[in-house]
Specification:
Radius of gyration: 15 Å
Shape: globular
Largest sheet: 2 strands, antiparallel
Strand order of the largest sheet: 1-2
Helix content: 55-70%
């Protein structure tokens, strides 16, 4: 089921969201200070390309630098990317088949707003590491 959802996702919105993250990552990597933010954009872009079967968890040991970085990220790129997820999510929810995809877009909003201090892991690995049921 994850594969079917990922293929439909890729066709309807995954590729476009991925390209948005790649564009944000390239723009952020222009400066040396922006490289960590650009790498975060690339990491989330891959997640936005193929999201079903993966989840976002808090990275252990992420502290104050992640918090400061998230504030900068929010100003530089986060709200643009979140706006893309909101727009795409609403458009997908207009059809019955698009509702799960729209909800997945809404699930990506928190990580698009505040990505630093987060890790993207396979759902099965997260279930084993953190003891919650795989979705």
């Amino acid at each position: 089921m994850k594969t079917i959802l990922n293929v439909i996702w890729l066709i309807l919105c995954g590729l476009w969201m991925f390209l948005g993250y790649v564009l944000a990552g390239l723009l952020l990597c222009i400066t040396i200070i922006g490289i960590p933010f650009g790498l975060a954009a690339f990491r989330i872009g891959v997640y936005a390309l193929w999201p079903f079967g993966h989840t976002v968890v808090d990275r252990p040991g992420a502290g104050a630098p992640s918090c400061v970085g998230n504030v900068l990220w929010l100003i530089l790129a986060g709200w643009w990317l979140a706006l893309g997820h909101i727009t795409t999510g609403i458009a997908l929810c207009l059809t019955i088949i698009g509702i799960p995809l729209g909800l997945a877009n809404f699930k990506l909003i928190p990580v698009s707003l505040l990505p630093l201090g987060k890790e993207i892991v396979r759902t099965d690995d997260a279930a084993a590491m953190y003891g919650f049921a795989a979705r």
